[in-house]
Amino acid sequence: AQKITQTQPGMFVQEKEAVTLDCTYDTSDPSYGLFWYKQPSSGEMIFLIYQGSYDQQNATEGRYSLNFQKARKSANLVISASQLGDSAMYFCAMRELMIKAAGNKLTFGGGTRVLVKP
Amino acid sequence: DTEVTQTPKHLVMGMTNKKSLKCEQHMGHRAMYWYKQKAKKPPELMFVYSYEKLSINESVPSRFSPECPNSSLLNLHLHALQPEDSALYLCASSQEETGAPYEQYFGPGTRLTVT
Predict the structure, then answer these.
(1) Interface touch B101/A50, C-beta < 8 Å
(2) How would residue B103 be classed by pLDDT, with cut points 50, 70 and 90?
(3) Which residues of B touch A (CB under 8 A)?
(4) Which of A27, A106, A112, A113 to mutate to test the interface with B (most CBs of B within 10 A)?
(5) Strand, coil or helix: what is B44?
(6) pLDDT tens digits, residue range B14-46?
(7) Of residues A6, A60, A4, the one with CA closest to residue A32
């Protein structure tokens, strides 16, 4: 079974509008971390935001916020006031913290390509 | 400084060549990673080094040979590659502490083409 699922392969968003990228995950580990990365066409993976499984509040980082619904096992990324430079591939990822065999592994979802229209 | 550097940016090699990819970080991170990424796919973990020791090898073929000469450097030696090994190779680093969810910082990658 897939551990991280991103159901939206691609999305268009109008400049200055908000966009929500979906991410659901599956784990039996009670302690885990969820990450979002942005990958522009240049290739570099840029860390955006982190949410821990025990965090009481949703993470926010500038224009990025994470809508964390633990019972539903979802961690959706919200980008507010989209800019042309937000056009990129976005990956949701998870690290399981208690399962020793997981080591330092970061498991990625399939990604969502976002294109911001002027 | 949150920079991970990788050289070269692009590499074209024949199936009989030997080449190396290099990665460097000066953030004091003690975990370093190699990922392989095919077009329109997520990165796939290849190797993890923790305190300069190989901790994870994701059943990578022996034609890929990692090396961690010191805490700042990570190499990936390539030999007798196949055309299907053409991909973007990403290096990453992170702090290392058991059970701690540190984010990984990625380099810009090396685009490898095997002819």
Answers:
(1) yes
(2) confident
(3) 31, 33, 40-43, 45, 48, 50, 55-56, 88, 90, 92, 94, 96, 99-101, 103-109, 111
(4) A106
(5) strand
(6) 999 999 999 999 999 999 999 999 999 999 999
(7) A4
Q: Which helix or strand (DSSP H or E) is residue A11 part of?
A: strand A10-14
**Per DSSP, which regions of B1-115 are E strands?**
4-7, 10-13, 18-25, 31-37, 44-50, 53-57, 64-70, 73-79, 87-94, 105-106, 110-114
Number of other residues whose CB lies within 10 A of the CB of residue A57: 8
Amino acid letter at B97? E
Give the CA count within 13 Å in the CB-facing half-sphere of B105.
19
- Taking the C-alpha atoms of residue B24 and residue B52, their distance in angstroms, rounded to an integer, is 13
Residues 6+ apart with CB under 8 A from B97: none
